[in-house]
Structure formats: C-alpha cells, structure tokens
C-alpha cells in the first residue's frame, strides 16, 4: 500500500502533512468511530453499493450520522481519486464522533470528524493470487460487536503481529475451537466441492466480498455450508482462501506450518476470483 499525498478532512482537501486533528477527538481518546475501505479500479469506486450498506449499518450501530448526503459524499470521494490521479487501489474512510471533553457517554451535538485518503495497490493483478499465502491460528480476544467496523483494532494488530513473528501473512482468529475470520479478512474453506464459511452474526464482520462470493460459489458449481469450522478442517481442506477489499480472493497454501493441498492452489479459488474480477471490471466500465 502506498498512500497518496492529498487527503480529505472535515470539508477540505489537504496535503497529508498539513492535516490536523484535535488531541481531544474521541477517535483518538476512545477509538469512538468507524471506518471503511472501498476498492478503486480504473479510477472508479467498485463494490460501491455494498460499501454504503455496511457503512450505514456501522454508523447506525454507534449512533453516528454522516454529515453529508450520499451523492455529496460520493462526489467528495470521486474528487479525492481525481486529485490524486489514482488508477487502482482503495479509499480509506474514517468518521469519529468528534471533539469533546473526555467523557465516556455518547455526547450529543458534536460535529463528527470525517477523514478519507486514497492509496495505490494492485487489486486485479496482486501476486498473492498466484503464489498463495500462509496463515497462523491465534486466539480471538476481540470484543463482542465485531459486526461493527470499529476503528478500535488493537486486538487485530496483536494478531497480525503474531503472524509476522511466525513469518506468515495472516492470522485466523479462533474462539471456542472454531475459526471466526482473519485478522483483516474473511475466511473460507472448500471441501468435497462445498464452500464452508461462518454464518453472519455479531461474531464476525459482514464482509462485502463474502456476500458476493457466496453468490459466485453457486455459479461455479459449489455447494454452500454456512457454519463454523475448525483448524483441523483447515489443515484437511481441499482449498482455503481469504477475501478482503483490495485483495479480493487470495488462496491460503499453508496453515500453522502445514501445507494445504500439498501447497498447490486448487480448482475453485481461481474461478471465484475471476468471477469477482469480472464483477468489479463491469462496475468500473459502466461508471
């Protein structure tokens, strides 16, 4: 990821080095805010409607209101893409409750802090799609409202650090002996032509990619089971993969040091990824 120079903050487009947020912002003090990431292809936002659905859901869950109408905010994001000449990558958006004296309760009448920046990354031709990644399993120590895309990400940072120390790329979060999701991704396994992933609840983030992958799975001939699965099932799976905003789908070829499918990428993950590429390219071309 390479962040671009110009950002948006509270109604202004600024150089990132000139942007300032109060030390009393509740995002800084409490982590009182939410965030989102939108993929950008051919300088166009994709998965846009799915983004809005989840963004509004997170805002409502913590009683925040975006101080812009939908069309107005989309135009802001389009301008941010344009002034940074971004071709491919993503937009990071963060909104906090705003600036106030340190008080735990949700204070009323505050002006939300709204920030966004764009970054370059390879979405369509990411090398990980061809070589796969490795993961490690870690305990899921997060709070109980993981369905909210909260900016409070310390537990995920700790999980990712364990992956880095183990020379792995991602961590699968384990609770009660089952996989919830990745530290920054949704988790899937395929066994006997059946796609298995944990059903949506407050225990996982409602992954945008996950929602579309379930639809594509039927199109490529997979059955679907929405249920929790264990790490033993991961080790024995025919295929394992993760999904995330600017990764789309990436195969997992090693888990806790054990090769999956002898370390080879299987039949269905490339097919599912191609379906997703076709979907977002169609969106980029019609905008």
UniProtKB/TrEMBL annotation:
Q: Identify a single GO molecular function assigned to this protein.
A: branched-chain-amino-acid transaminase activity
Keyword vocabulary terms for this entry: Aminotransferase, Pyridoxal phosphate, Transferase
Instruction: Look up the EC number in the record and give it.
Output: 2.6.1.42
The keyword Transferase is annotated on this UniProt entry: yes
Pathway involvement?
Answer: Amino-acid biosynthesis; L-leucine biosynthesis; L-leucine from 3-methyl-2-oxobutanoate: step 4/4; Amino-acid biosynthesis; L-isoleucine biosynthesis; L-isoleucine from 2-oxobutanoate: step 4/4; Amino-acid biosynthesis; L-valine biosynthesis; L-valine from pyruvate: step 4/4
Write down the required cofactor(s).
pyridoxal 5'-phosphate
Which biological processes are named by the entry's GO terms? amino acid biosynthetic process; carboxylic acid biosynthetic process
What's one GO-annotated cellular component?
cytosol
Q: Which reaction does it catalyse?
A: L-leucine + 2-oxoglutarate = 4-methyl-2-oxopentanoate + L-glutamate; L-valine + 2-oxoglutarate = 3-methyl-2-oxobutanoate + L-glutamate; L-isoleucine + 2-oxoglutarate = (S)-3-methyl-2-oxopentanoate + L-glutamate
Give the similarity note. Belongs to the class-IV pyridoxal-phosphate-dependent aminotransferase family.
Q: Which NCBIfam families match?
A: PRK06680.1
Q: What is this protein called?
A: branched-chain-amino-acid transaminase
């Amino acid at each position: 990821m390479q962040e671009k120079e110009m950002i948006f903050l509270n109604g202004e487009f600024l150089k990132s080095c000139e942007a300032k947020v109060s030390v009393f912002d509740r995002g800084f003090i409490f982590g009182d805010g939410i965030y989102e990431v939108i993929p950008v292809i051919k300088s166009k936002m994709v998965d846009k409607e799915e983004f809005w659905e989840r963004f509004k859901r997170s805002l409502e869950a913590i009683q925040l209101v975006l101080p812009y109408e939908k069309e107005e905010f989309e135009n802001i994001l389009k301008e941010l893409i344009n002034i940074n000449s971004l071709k491919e990558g993503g937009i990071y958006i963060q909104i906090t409750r705003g600036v106030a004296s340190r008080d735990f309760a949700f204070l009323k009448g505050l002006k939300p802090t709204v920030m966004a920046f764009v970054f370059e990354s390879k979405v369509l031709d990411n090398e990980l799609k061809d070589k796969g990644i490795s993961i490690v399993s870690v305990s899921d120590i997060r709070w109980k409202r993981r369905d909210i895309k909260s900016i409070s990400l310390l537990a995920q940072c700790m999980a990712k650090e364990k992956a880095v120390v183990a020379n792995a790329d991602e961590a699968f979060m384990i609770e009660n002996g089952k996989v919830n999701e990745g530290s920054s991704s949704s988790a899937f396994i395929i066994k006997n032509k059946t796609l298995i992933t944990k059903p949506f609840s407050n225990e996982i983030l409602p992954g945008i990619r996950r929602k579309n992958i379930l639809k594509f799975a039927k199109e490529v001939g997979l059955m679907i089971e929405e249920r929790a699965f264990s790490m033993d099932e991961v080790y024995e799976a025919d295929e394992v993969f993760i999904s995330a905003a600017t990764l789309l789908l990436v195969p997992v070829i090693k888990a806790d040091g054990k090769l999956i499918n002898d370390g080879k990428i299987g039949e269905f993950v490339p097919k599912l990824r191609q379906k997703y590429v076709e979907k977002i390219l169609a969106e980029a071309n019609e905008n």
